[in-house]
Structures are given as structure tokens and as C-alpha cells.
Design a protein that fits this description.
alpha+beta, Fumarylacetoacetate hydrolase, domain 2, 12-stranded mixed sheet, 5-stranded mixed sheet, 6 helices, 19 strands, 14% helix, binds zinc ion
């Protein structure tokens, strides 16, 4: 099942058409794409029991928003692929390295992003959305707490991120538009193996990152376990799971995003994000 946010309304996607959930459910579920996660189990049961409810209509990708636009908590994981940890000059951590991206930086899967500086970098990432409260959950039950997966970018202004004595991961990665996700949320049952998906990105058609999520140091169910040992994960919380090798900062010489560049981010079985960078 593909669920998402079309013009700020909760939407099911069937083939290349969109179904408005509030209308299709006769008001059983409201239009807020974020609120559905608090009733996720009930929603999935309704959607499965009513596979042809509602009117399926064409839509424009420009009208898609983040599948979970206003989470209570956002987690982002650093150094979660061995090759990216190595290119960053840090070791593979014993426990997930966690920071946040503030939701004011969220945006949809297609559009323009304003460059706030000249050292803006890409980070293609698998994003997981929590579907059930998780507190001290073992990794073996991790997937049961995940509503679904989507594609994301952890855009990063490297100067802000690295200036000063202590890294500013949260601020350097939370300029407006720096946390795109989409095009929709795909439920884990849709994948042959939700733990092994091809992902990557291109800039102006040149491949910059290419990896598989089976190479995550801490895979999604382990992240649910490690995070929920310390914090309570709430329905609708968003986890950016980390990026593989190939970021611009680690290249010699470094490569950063410039005005007019087009960044395309893809994850197997989910789809593509397409962003163009414009100057302030
Ligand atoms: Zn990242």
C-alpha cells in the first residue's frame, strides 16, 4: 500500500492515480496526513478491507508533500554505512549516532530548494515512519512498529554543520527545504525484503551515491530497538536512517550543490525525489 500527502490531504495511491481518504472513507478518517499514524492499525485494516473505495483521480507530483509532515520527533542517524563513516574520517560507532532535523525543514518530493550557502551537500537516505508506539522494543519486533518506508534527503550545509568546536548537525541540516521526503510511504509488506533496497542519487545526471540498505550498520529494526531503549517512539515519528558513501564533502576536491543543479534521489520500490537548487 502507498499512502501519502497530496495538497496536505491524506491520500492513497493506486497505480498512477490518487484516492482522497476522507472522501473514500466517508469521513471515518480525516484529511490530516500526520494524524493517521495515531490510528495506523485501524487505517491499514480499513484500506485492506476496501481496496476499491473512493474515486481514483490523476494528480501532479508537484502537489505531493512529505508523507509524515509534522512528526512529534525526528531522528537522523550519522555514520550508518561503513563507507560513509570511512569517507568522513570517523569509525563505525558502537551505538547509533543520533541527531535531529527540525520539521520546519520538511518538504515534499519535488520542487526547488534555496541554497543558503556554497557548501550544501546531498545525502540520499531511506526514511522510516513509526506506526506504533515503541518503548524498549527488541529488534526482532522492530518492523512491527514501522508504518512504512519512504525516500529522503538529509541536505546539509557543511560550513554550518562543522564550524566551531562542537558539530551543529541539527542546525546545519535544518534550513528550509533541507529535509525532503516522499513521494509516498510504502508499507513494509510491499517489498520482497524491506531490509535490502537499492538507493542512491544523481546530480545533473551524474551518479553520486549508489548502495543497498542491507549495508546499513544499524538496520531499521535495530534502530527501533536502540532508540526505543532510551526514548519512546510515537506514531508518526520520522527516522532518517543515514547516508552511504559518495557525499560531496568527502570528494577531492569537494563538490557542492550550485544554482541550477538538479538532484534526483531514488530508492527501489519507493520512487524518486527531484529537487532543483536556486540561489537566495
Ligand atoms: Zn544523513
Amino acid at each position: 500500500m502507498r499512502v501519502g500527502n497530496l495538497s496536505d490531504r491524506l491520500t492513497l495511491f493506486r497505480g498512477d492515480a490518487a484516492v482522497d481518504v476522507e472522501k473514500a472513507s466517508g469521513g471515518q478518517f480525516g484529511p490530516d496526513p500526520q494524524a493517521v499514524y495515531d490510528r495506523w492499525t485501524e487505517f491499514v485494516a480499513w484500506a485492506r478491507a476496501n481496496p476499491s473505495a473512493g474515486e481514483a483521480v490523476p494528480f501532479r507530483t508537484e502537489d505531493l508533500g512529505a508523507p509524515a509532515p509534522r512528526p512529534r520527533q525526528v531522528f537522523a542517524i550519522g555514520a550508518n554505512y561503513r563507507d560513509h563513516a570511512e569517507e568522513g574520517g570517523v569509525g563505525v560507532p558502537d551505538h547509533p549516532m543520533v541527531f535531529t532535523k527540525w520539521p520546519s525543514s520538511f518538504t515534499g518530493p519535488v520542487g526547488d530548494v534555496v541554497l543558503p550557502g556554497d557548501t550544501v551537500d546531498w545525502e540520499a537516505e531511506l526514511v522510516a515512519v513509526v506506526g506504533r508506539r515503541a518503548r524498549d522494543v527488541p529488534a526482532s519486533e522492530g518492523w512491527a512498529h514501522v508504518a512504512g518506508l519512504t525516500a529522503g534527503q538529509d541536505l546539509s550545509e557543511r560550513t554550518v554543520q562543522t564550524r566551531g568546536e562542537f558539530p551543529q548537525m541539527g542546525l546545519g541540516k535544518s534550513f528550509p527545504g533541507f529535509s525532503p521526503s516522499g513521494p509516498w510511504l510504502v508499507t513494509p509488506d510491499e517489498f520482497a525484503d524491506p531490509g535490502d533496497l537499492e538507493l542512491g542519487c544523481t546530480v545533473n545526471g551524474h551518479r553520486m551515491q549508489h548502495a543497498r540498505t542491507r549495508d546499513l550498520v544499524f538496520p531499521v529494526p535495530v534502530l527501533v530497538a536502540e532508540l526505543s531503549r532510551i526514548v519512546t517512539l510515537e506514531p508518526g515519528d520520522v527516522i532518517f536512517t543515514g547516508t552511504p558513501g559518495g557525499v560531496g564533502m568527502a570528494r577531492r576536491p569537494p563538490v557542492y550543490l550550485a544554482e541550477g543543479d538538479e538532484l534526483v534521489t531514488t530508492i527501489e520500490g519507493i520512487g524518486a525525489l527531484r529537487h532543483r537548487f536556486v540561489s537566495a
